[in-house]
Description:
It contains eleven helices and 19 strands.
Amino acid sequence: xxxxxxxxxxxxxxxxxxxxxPGAATPPIEPGRILDHIKFLASDDLRGRAxxxxxxxxxxxYIADAFTSAGLKPAGSNGDWFQPFELVAGVAIGDGNVLExxxxxxxxxxxLGRSYYPLAATPSESATILHDVPVVFAGYGISAPGLNxxxxxxxxxxxxxxxxxxxxPQEQQRDSRLNGARPIRETTLYAxxxxxxxxxxxxxxxxxxxxxxxxxxxxxxxxxxPDPEDQGxxxxxxxxxxxxxxxxxxxxxxxxAMIDRDLIPRSRALTGVTIDYTQALTTNRRTVRNVVGILAxxxxxxxxxxxxxxxxxxxxxxxxxFSAAPDxxxxxxxxxxxxxxxxxxxxxxxxxxxxxxxxxxxxLVFVAFAGEERGLLGSAHYTSDxxxxxxxxxxxxxxxxxxxxxxxxEVGGMSTAALxxxxxxxxxxxxxxxxxxxxxxxxxxDSSFLDRHVPALHFFTGFHDDYHAPSDDWPRIDAAGxxxxxxxxxELAARLAARADRLPFAGP
Length: 508
């Protein structure tokens, strides 16, 4: 961690003589300016601001320029605006990827990006080669003993490839003990992969189940945005049409129909069935950058402490495994609400605060995080190397998805009575209905600060059907509402900055 005085000493000397009078009014946050930022950040030119992309770099430079214009000083790692760190951003596809499945009489050779693709893979510098590996059929790949259903009961899968159907049996029966149309944890890809891996399987092959008229997987999307999960073993989505001759020969659809009828597993070894699999995928490591600016506090003593404003500026690019609309992978996911809205609010909060420094005895640090969509990586990096020591950071205010207010905002983290009073007072100034709530623990960058025992609030206007979809575009933004959320955060920061005491940490 860098000492606070290295960042603030010169700035404090420059501003203390020119602090505006305590009675000065903070300039209003203008919806038009908010919308202009969102239009740029969520434009097709920025192609969804994927981590590791040139477009994310372009967005970062835009934010740095906006911080400059707002009146902030740079607070990055090297005296500039940026705090670089490295992350994994998808995979690079090498030569020779192929999957072949054989019975005693039939052989099917599948091509990456046409008839199969990895849902999960572990990239490596050398190719992964599975040769002549036996295949077993494990129904739907579900292990739910608590619901009296286990496709792996008395099935030996060690050192074998496991072939399963997608979805679950009795999917449309609401009275099913597997919950029917209400998915259970055991039917997720993660749970199915773990069930196979922990039993010693070497690969998991997933084919569309016969109750769905069409294979819903988008095989051609993988080469466009190659970004599989890592579940410890290859998990391969396999084209039903291409595998149809083997499905018929092995009578697997009939077994699925029987499972669907009575929920009795029909798993079995597939005698004489083997696969060959070659995987040539290597990790893409990319450097991305948080953008960090600071507004020195108006008080020489309390100015050594800071309030952090944060929001992430990365999004999901062309979708890939992060898309909520997998069939739309390859289309630009612009992320107007998620989270161009929060960054626009961040910029305009900085502008308003810099125009009225006297309201902020404590310093304000503004951080646009990269890497949020890949696991809150930017905020985790900042908290491990903060511009102001975390011991001197009195609070963090996070703005993530604040573009659909409609007169109300959810505020996560109001865990003390005194803080609730401050939020309600700030909400009255902003003209908003501020309600306790939020997207859930661990869902955004405030979590990285809570993990370090820094009080943190999250401003959030709710999930919607456009979340992580190409339809999250700027015309759907409530610019006036976003400006009100920004005003609420600004007013709350003014109250926290002027407190005589430190805000107590009461837990997440």
